[in-house]
Specification:
Oligomer: single chain
Number of domains: 1
Radius of gyration: 20 Å
Distance between the termini: 27 Å
Shape: elongated
Strand content: under 5%
Largest sheet: none
């Protein structure tokens, strides 16, 4: 009995497995930080509407600093290209699902770098400058809304890309 023509051998080996774990790890961290950002931006929007004081957890989330965990999305293509190289031709850039995943990732990066993280940085500055927990600036409301929408769209794209990588149509 011969091998079926057109059936690809699934790549394996310790190097492939380690790179796959790192690739999936970057996706999981990216998803987690995006959900966390969306939830905290949503909480901030709700608190601002109610003119309620900000809880310590929200203030801690918006503490000034770079969201390094969110930047884990840059590991997705890095390790993805590693997987392509380690697949020994089983997978390639010509595969539609690979190109689709790259296109989705470009959208994720554009939204994260263009809207999500700039809004987060603006909120960090605004909330750090707020006195006594009172925040009523219209720019804070606008930035929180922009962050919430951008995080939601980013999350949807990350989930779509993850589904595409699992299904590999």
């Amino acid at each position: 009995m011969g091998e079926d023509v057109g059936v690809h051998h699934q790549p394996d080996g310790p190097a492939f497995d380690v790179v796959l774990i790192l690739h999936v790890g970057c996706v999981v961290v990216g998803l987690t930080t995006t959900v966390t950002g969306a939830v905290n931006a949503g909480r901030l929007v709700t608190l601002l509407r109610a003119a309620a004081p900000l809880p310590d957890a929200v203030r801690r989330y918006f503490r000034p600093g770079v969201n390094w965990a969110g930047r884990s999305i840059y590991g997705i293509p890095l390790f993805g290209f590693g997987l392509l190289a380690l697949s020994h031709g089983v997978y390639g850039l010509r595969d539609g699902w690979v190109m689709g995943g790259l296109a989705i990732l470009v959208g994720v990066v554009l939204i994260a770098e263009g809207v999500l993280w700039p809004a987060e940085r603006k909120l960090q500055v605004s909330l750090a400058a707020a006195v006594g927990g009172a925040v009523a600036e219209e720019s804070v409301r606008r930035d929180a809304g922009a962050m919430m929408v951008a995080a939601t769209v980013t999350l949807a794209l990350l989930l779509a890309g993850s589904a595409l990588m699992v299904v590999q149509p």
